[in-house]
């Protein structure tokens, strides 16, 4: 190697030292990522929630949200009813019909009185949820209810014609002579009445690639309005339904979600069960006036046959009720398609017969109208969940429909439609 070439190598080494070895402050740290707008953070949070799994908003389970994220959910639900499942599981009238035996001693009927009901319920539910931790969410549910119902009376006289009771108007005058108020044929909510507030928290205690499990602890607060006893459908006195349950109820919901592996990962299974126990509460029964003394003999005969003609004018109207246990279950299969999730579910709910402490005559009145009995219901449901992120909206939208397939001592709700939407607001 020549001296000239050695000098060239020396200059190359010196240049490499000063260029490569000297500090270059501008390249010490990578450039900071650009800050995201609030809308971009909303989109990012929504997409992360969609990736967690099932996006269907059905059952009692509240939606889970990440830490320091607020969920705003609004549900609209509509139901119509004109029949009920009776104690023998058959479909019958909402209000128990009257067919008292002839008090004059024949084998016929005194009269037949049937009340047909045509009612509708609309519900607006505001649900707030907040992620305390990634796996722990606090929630509160504020329902509003609007109801409307009309009664249609069908009266067929029997031997009642012998005392001048030939029409429904005559029957209502007879009611008043017995001290029983005539039923109101129409009810309309003045606005949106508050229902029972529900609050609590849910905890996803296990989350894997194919399986997750969540428990939800709830408390139902009796903030809803109970029907006026003298206008209540429950007692056959009118067209009004209870908006709430009227009792405090702690509850537990448990959910398991399974995602099939491999090529079947677009199929999921959803199992959910809830248990609530409604505590004792004090209420008042219908108010009777004193019956016409001239009908005392006839009244005595009718009381033996139909206890809805009892003289309740002197009984203690207040009574205590413990509604007790209520169980709700949901079993569903879900299909995760490209732009939406489709679910088919089966709902079953059960409630025990309430424990009633009341005056003996008031309890006989309740029993005659089947006011408080154990009951259950079965229904099939279809639910479609659409993540709105693919149209650049930071939220979820669901639509659902349920069809009744059976029950006992419960209203038969038809045209059960649900519209649900939820948006996620990051608070960080």
Helix/strand-derived category reads: mainly beta
Measured by DSSP, the beta-strand proportion falls in: over 45%
Order of helices and strands: HHEEEEHEEEEEEEHEEEEHEEE
Low-confidence stretches: 10-28
Could you describe the 3D structure shown?
The protein has 5 helices and 18 strands. It has 428 residues and is mainly β. The strands form 2 sheets. The chain has a 12-stranded antiparallel β-barrel with strand order 1-3-4-7-8-9-10-13-14-16-17-18. The chain has a 3-stranded antiparallel sheet with strand order 11-12-15, with no helix packed on it. The longest helix has 19 residues, at 3-21.
Give keywords.
single chain, 428 residues, mainly beta, twelve-stranded antiparallel barrel, three-stranded antiparallel β-sheet, 18 strands, 45% strand
